[in-house]
Amino acid sequence: MTAAVITFPGSNCDRDMAVALEQVTGRSPVRLWHRDTQVPRHVDMIAVPGGFSYGDYLRSGALAARSPIMRAVAEAAARGVPVLGVCNGFQILCEAGLLPGALLRNAGQTFICRTAELEVASTASVFTADLEVGETLRIPVAHHDGNFFAAEEVLDRLEQSGRVVLRYVDNLNGSRRAIAGVANEAGNVVGMMPHPERAVDAAHGGTDGLKLLRHCAALALG
Amino acid sequence: MQVRVHVSLKPGVLDPQGRAVLHALEGLGFDGVQDVRVGRVIDLEVADGTSADTIDAMCRQLLANLVIENYSFTVTEPA
């Protein structure tokens, strides 16, 4: 399996994501730049990493979402290629319209940097398919704008269709319905605020992040 | 010509920044401030004759996020 990691000006988790994906796929990921206009056809999975793309100017993820590479990511997502957006990557996928909702400033106004306990809320996505609903994962968060918002009717629809994939056990940032991660309708695009790539080595304090990356890798290898 | 775009959070969307400003105003002794909402003003210098539809498209496609924000604009200096 070949994964791709996108780098925008201001991304800062791209290298960590590449290391984590190399660990689950056994191959060094393709690195794509924001100005690239194509995702190579042999790419089986795309990661949109965390950071502060374009300095968070205008709104977090707003400018990255309109960059040339994101048009190519949208095309790949429409073909069914799995896409994982983490933290700023989640914000970018929402801004690009690939995922519903938006990420507002944390309700408590502060930047939150700590390990969060997450509950798997749905297995209807390529990244949570081999987990159990109700299973808990310990994965770090580090964000200022992680407060998930969508209109009530959108939230109802997401919950009814199993598209809320991860929830905070302790809703640390004020997200509507404690949502930490959502999927698109097809289940191949997932956005989440916590950083699975920061929990892939015992030295990180845990390896629960691998649980979110391994299924996708196994699918492509199988 | 110059266009001023005003972007604000939709009613019902929590504005923690506005709330913090409200508390700071109270701390300064200003009583009776009931609510504060912090928005954004974007000034555009555009080609003369740019249509309202084009400016509206700019707002919808980039300047505002319609999931959480409302927008309005006025031509501040006509051609």
Helix/strand order of chain B: EHEHE
Query: What's the number of structural domains of chain A?
Result: 1
CATH superfamily of chain A: Class I glutamine amidotransferase (GATase) domain
By CATH reckoning, the class of chain A would read: Alpha Beta
Terminal residue distance of chain A: 9 Å
Q: State the oligomer.
A: heterodimer
Radius of gyration of chain B in whole Å, from Cα?
16 Å
**Helicity of chain A, as a percent range:** 25-40%
Helix count, DSSP H or I runs of 4 or more residues of chain A? 6
Question: What is the terminal separation of chain B in angstroms?
Answer: 5 Å
Summed over residues and divided by their number, the pLDDT of chain A gives a mean of 96
Structural class of chain A comes to alpha/beta
Q: Remind me, CATH topology of chain A? A: Rossmann fold
CATH class wording of chain B: Alpha Beta
Helix and strand run of chain A: EHEEHHEHEEEEHEEEH
The fourth-level CATH homologous superfamily of chain B is: Phosphoribosylformylglycinamidine synthase subunit PurS
* Total number of helices of chain B: 2
Main sheet makeup of chain B: 3 strands, antiparallel
For the largest interface, the chains and their residue counts are: A-B, 20 and 11 residues
Question: What is the strand and helix layout of this fold?
Answer:
The complex is a heterodimer of chains A (about 220) and B (about 80).
Chain A: E1 3-7, H1 14-25, E2 30-33, E3 45-48, H2 62-65, H3 68-79, E4 83-86, H4 88-95, E5 102-104, E6 112-120, E7 136-143, E8 147-149, H5 152-160, E9 164-168, E10 179-183, E11 189-192, H6 208-221
Parallel strand pairs in A: 1-2, 1-3, 3-4, 4-11
Antiparallel strand pairs in A: 5-8, 6-7, 6-9, 9-10, 10-11
Helix pairs in contact in A: 1-6
Chain B: E1 2-9, H1 16-27, E2 40-45, H2 52-63, E3 69-77
Q: Can you characterise this structure?
A:
The complex is a heterodimer of chains A (222) and B (79). By secondary structure, chain A is α/β, with parallel strands linked by helices. Chain A is 27% helix and 24% strand. Chain A has a nine-stranded mixed beta sheet with strand order 2-1-3-4-11-10-9-6-7, sandwiched between helices. In chain A, a hairpin with a 5-residue loop joins strand 10 and strand 11 (189-192). In chain A, helix 1 (14-25) packs across helix 6. The longest helix of chain A has 14 residues, at 208-221. Chain A is globular. Chain B has a three-stranded antiparallel beta sheet, with helices on one face. Chains A and B meet through loops of A and helix 1 and helix 2 of B.
